[in-house]
Amino acid sequence: MNQKEIKELIEFLVEKDIAECELERGDVKVRVKRGQPQAEIPAAHYVAVPPVPAAAPAAAPAAAPASAAGQAAAPAGAAEEEAGLHIIRSPIVGTFYESPSPGAPPFVKPGDKVGIGQVLCIIEAMKLMNEIESDYAGELAKTFVSNGQPVEYGQPLFAVRGA
């Protein structure tokens, strides 16, 4: 059973709202159990804002700390987005690999032209190798992570300059 088949099985279980399933093929046994969905609220939405005094003249000084807090909470890669670069972010938590195997050349390097659907890297999660594809066409401007580095969900991986 390969990764694609497991992914299709999980999608089928979600679609049919099945909470638990066990599948056995030869010597391979897979058990999938879904928990209750939990509402996730990204931490970036929590911004500490100092209390605003009731007096009207204090409104101007209170704006400065709020903008500083907004800048501190801005995700990595925001400057690149402002510079006209498209940021490709990690869809999962795992370990970043720039090439298909040790010693092989990287999938892409800065300066390469990339197309939509082109494999950019692999992220290993729970012993599964997940190919991360480009969702944007252009020239690879920057790689934010190095080979073997752990990555988080939503972390910037690449910056692509539009074609």
Label this structure with key terms:
alpha+beta, 163 residues, single chain, elongated, four-stranded antiparallel sheet
What do you see in this structure?
The strands form three sheets. The chain has a four-stranded antiparallel beta sheet with strand order 3-10-8-5. It is 20% helix and 31% strand. The longest helix is centred in the middle third of the chain and has 15 residues. The chain contains three helices and ten strands. About 15% of the residues have low confidence. A hairpin with a 2-residue loop joins strand 1 and strand 2.
Number of helices: 3
Mind describing the biggest β-sheet?
Answer: 4 strands, antiparallel
Strand order of the largest sheet: 3-10-8-5
Global structural class: alpha+beta
Layout of helices and strands, plus pairs?
Layout (H helix, E strand, L loop, with lengths): L2 H13 L4 E6 L2 E6 L25 H15 L4 H5 L2 E5 L4 E4 L15 E2 L4 E7 L2 E6 L4 E6 L6 E2 L4 E7 L1
Antiparallel strand pairs: 1-2, 3-10, 4-6, 4-9, 5-8, 6-7, 8-10
